[in-house]
Amino acid sequence: xxxxxxxxxxxxxxxxxxxxxxxxxxxxxxxxPVAAGSPxxxxxxVVPEPTRTQRVRTVNGRRQPPVVRAxxxxxxxxxxxxxxxxxPRGPGRTVRYLVEVERxxxxxxxxxxxxxxATLTDPxxxxxxFQRVARGPVEIRVSLSSPALARSRCLPLDVxxxxxxxxxxxxxxxxxxxxxxxPSYGRDLxxxxxxxxxxxxxxxxxxxxxxCPRRGAPAPVMVQQTKSLYGCRPNPxxxxxxRIDR
Length: 246
What we know:
Residues 66-229 form the DUF3152 domain. The chain has 246 residues and is of the alpha/beta class. It has five helices and eight strands, in the order αββββαββαββαα.
């Protein structure tokens, strides 16, 4: 095919332009600023506000543990918390006990065991000398349990999925209550935890339920305070009661 000189020049010129454009297309370039609102602009990373479970709360002058929502059921098997804690010095009989936590619950077993021992050995407590051990023989087992396991372990008592109990040598602590407390204690989860340990272990020591003596009085620890205060004020201790604002 014949090509005229003018056509050849045009073709050559077009090839040169194409080559230049191709070089421009593949040359690394600096990113260009894009107008705000353009789809190419990424929104700045947003750091979420701390959730309720992450905030450090202070209620009644006490630093509160985080609220934790426990699952309705977990593995159904307990794990004994290893190690132990000595009985405090002083009068009173020694009570050997162990702590166990159902596998699969979102709680640290060692932290739970430490909270239990601090409550049982508090001067406002029952007065026995509690010694935590990792194996029997023991008088009491304190068992953190999912609501489903608590319901099973508490039979023939009917605790549903929301209550704790004393049954068959165990203070069965409902993990949902341990994680979120009870309306009777308001936002004071730390104090409610002391109450539920004191109350259920109190059953293990032979104490039965009692009633509110008069409106406005501190509730005896063996009142079923998780259900209601019955006109009393919340109180987690067998002795030396203290006012708690809800």
